[in-house]
Each structure stands twice: as C-alpha cells, then as structure tokens.
Amino acid sequence: MTRLPTPADVASAAERIAPYVRRTPMTRVVLDGRPLWLKLEQLQLTGSFKLRGATNALLTGDRPARVATVSGGNHGFAVGTAARLLDLPTRVHVPSYAAESKIRRIKETGAEVVHHQTYPEANEAARLEGEQPGTRFVSAYDDPAVIAGQGTVGLEIVADAPEVDAVFVAVGGGGLAAGLALGTARRIVAVEPTGCDCLHAALRAGEPVHTEVDSVAMSALGAAKAGELTFAVLRAAGVESHLVTDAELLAARDRLWEEFRLAVEPAAAVPFALWLKDEVPTEAPCVVLCGANTDWLPTDA
After folding, report:
1. What global pTM score does this model have?
2. What number does CATH give the domain 51-140?
3. Which of 13, 119, 136, 182 is the most interior residue, by most CB within 10 Å?
4. CA distance 76 to 33
5. Residue 75, CA distances (Å) to 107, 242, 256, 282 in order
C-alpha cells in the first residue's frame, strides 16, 4: 500500500495550493436550540472541496504531460479546473449516472469527457490511461496528495473555530473525511446515505468491500468501495460511521435553504441530516457543507 499521508503533508498542501483555492468561511448558528458551526465549502471555487485535493495532486511531484481521472462529477470538474490553471490537457472518464449539469461543467474546463456505462468501467479505463508515460492519474480519494489537499479544510476549521470538538462530514470514497482526520485531530463523524455506504460496509467487514450504489446523492457519493488509504486513515482515527436515508438528506437540504438560504447539492446535506436527528452528542459540532453543484432550485424560488 502507498505511504499514508500525515498531518505534515496537510500543512505542506495548504502552502502549495493557497494561490489557487479559496479559503472558505465558517458561520456559527443556533438551530432547534443547539449551536452549530457550518463550514461553507460549497463556496469553494468549482463549488466543492474537490479542487483542494486535485490541485495538490497536480502540484506534487514531477509535472505531468497530461492528466486522466474518473468521476461522477465534482472531482472531474475540480481536476479539469486545476489542470486548466496549470495548462495541462485532461481526460475525464464518467459513468452513465453522472449528472448532465456536472458533465457540462467538466467540459467547460476544456477537459475531454469519455462516457462509460458503469463507474468500474470508467475507473478501469482512466487507470489504464494513467499508466501511459507522462500521464498523471488523479484518484478522486485514494491518493496521499488528494487526501492531504482535502485535509486543508480541517486546518481552516481549527484555525477559525478551535473550540469545535466534532466534525460531521459526508463520505463517498472517504478522501475528505480522511483529510479532516489528519487536519483537525478532532472527532470525525462520517455520514453516508443508506444507498451509498461503502465506508460503513468496510468498517463492518474490517476492510474495503464492494457495495451497491443507489441514492439521490450518488453523483457525488457514489463510490462502490472505500479507498485503501482512506480506510486505513479513518480506521486509525477511530472514525464513527452513521447512515441517513434519502428522505432525511433531502429534507435537510431543504432546511438549509429555509433557515439560512444556503443552496447545496444532496451530498452536502448528508451530515446536516444526521446532526438534525440529534443522535450524536457534541458540545461544539461543525458540519461541512461540501458542495453546491446542482441544478436544484427551492420550490419558492
């Protein structure tokens, strides 16, 4: 297995990517009588945290001649954007369920989009391309540089609100959660939809295992198997795993709009949905709103 990333890698990533990414704000709110910090990562350039890891990956090591990746949407948009900033040609392999709005955004970066029927097929094609000389394959989550880049979200949380004692975060392949574990040294509460629960299954099995993917949030959280690196980091950190239903996460998305006028994609509402259930006692929780790449509009818009 590739070397696990460390907190020092996260600190180095923060310096490396600072010219290219946005330091996103935090806001403290009180809802249902309970205090909560919201990390507004949906305001990141490209509309999600993914730009951090993609940029760090492309700035780590030798400069490649070209870039390849696989994505259901947000990661591909981030890699395409980072590659455009660095003037690198990019090819993004996508599964059939990738949202048209996200494919459109990927193409707008100048990246070439290659369609496949399933995520495993897209992943295999992208990885084979990444084996060609001069090509850098950028994993959506199972890459030390990607994990370290995502961990810079955690550095900002701790700097802006050192009293935070737990971070609620949505999990797809686990890159953001693993990065937060390294970047915050805080309790990490990982949350997944019941139809996209690869981390929950991995923790139950003791190792990453293949799972079925079927959720309204699958375009962002649709990893069928947790990453080897992310799983190792998260298990070592003693991460907690929790599940919410599609109905709960959609209700949470709507609540974010109704209460705070925050428009996010379904995946971003997943950790907020768990916090609303008040099943995880904390003194100073932070919920990471990870992205806003959606064409959804509230009914009263």
Report:
1. 0.93
2. 3.40.50.1100
3. 13
4. 39
5. 13, 23, 23, 31
